[in-house]
Amino acid sequence: MTTPIRTIPLWGPMSYVGLVFALLTYVGDQGFKFLMLAVLDIDRWSIPRVPVTSFFDIILAWNRGISYGWFAQHTEAGRWLLIGFTSLVTIGLWLWLARQSRPLPAMGIGLIIGGALANITDRLIHGAVADFFWFHVGRFSWYVFNLADVAIVAGAAIILYDSFHSGTPEKAIEPRKDGGNGA
């Protein structure tokens, strides 16, 4: 007797939702980076930053690690390790997306996939991820980030929100016929 081979679904009922959000994220992030790097050529500006408000600047920072610059890789092997790891995570996210039946988590997963693919593209083309947005107040300084990072954080927040709000309400406890509360 042979056991049936289980297939892994690559497309599900909400995959199109995730794909749309992944594409919007990817195109938005890469489009902004193209504008800043190729059209405006921010890398060659004589000023290191462009103040937009008293607490927000546009600068160019090359991130060779993951979020917050953690695990920075300064070798080709390290760069390819990050590309490979991020690719594997993205494949895992796609498989998770294919199993979704509700639009909200599919949207969140799509945002994360799009952000991850945009950052992979940066590593492939530039060797590091281009970050531009810097918030700061007084001596407090937030890390420099890009649109892909915003999408990844938003996607994670959406998935977390959905995990707390998607369950069906618990059924009210009906009183027992003998007068007890059923608990």
- Overall pLDDT level: 87
N/C terminus separation: 47 Å
Per DSSP E runs of 2 or more residues, the count of β-strands stands at 4
H/E element order: HEEHHEEH
Query: What is the makeup of the main sheet?
Result: 4 strands, antiparallel
Q: Tell the overall outline.
A: globular
Q: Please bin the fraction of helical residues.
A: 40-55%
- Main structural class: alpha+beta
Summed up, the helix count is 4
List the helices and strands and how they pair.
Layout: H1 15-39, E1 49-51, E2 56-63, H2 76-97, H3 103-126, E3 129-137, E4 140-141, H4 147-165
Antiparallel strand pairs: 1-2, 2-3, 3-4
Helix pairs in contact: 1-3, 2-3, 3-4
Compact summary:
With 183 residues, the protein is an alpha+beta fold.
Give an overview in words.
The chain has 183 residues and is of the alpha+beta class. The protein has one domain (20-139, 149-164). 49% of the residues lie in helices and 12% in strands. The protein has four helices and four strands. The protein has helices at 15-39, 76-97, 103-126, 147-165, and strands at 49-51, 56-63, 129-137, 140-141. It has a four-stranded antiparallel sheet with strand order 1-2-3-4. Helix 1 (15-39) runs parallel beside helix 3 (103-126), helix 2 packs antiparallel against helix 3 (103-126) and helix 3 (103-126) packs antiparallel against helix 4. The longest helix is centred in the N-terminal third of the chain and has 25 residues, at 15-39. The radius of gyration is 22 Å and the shape is globular.
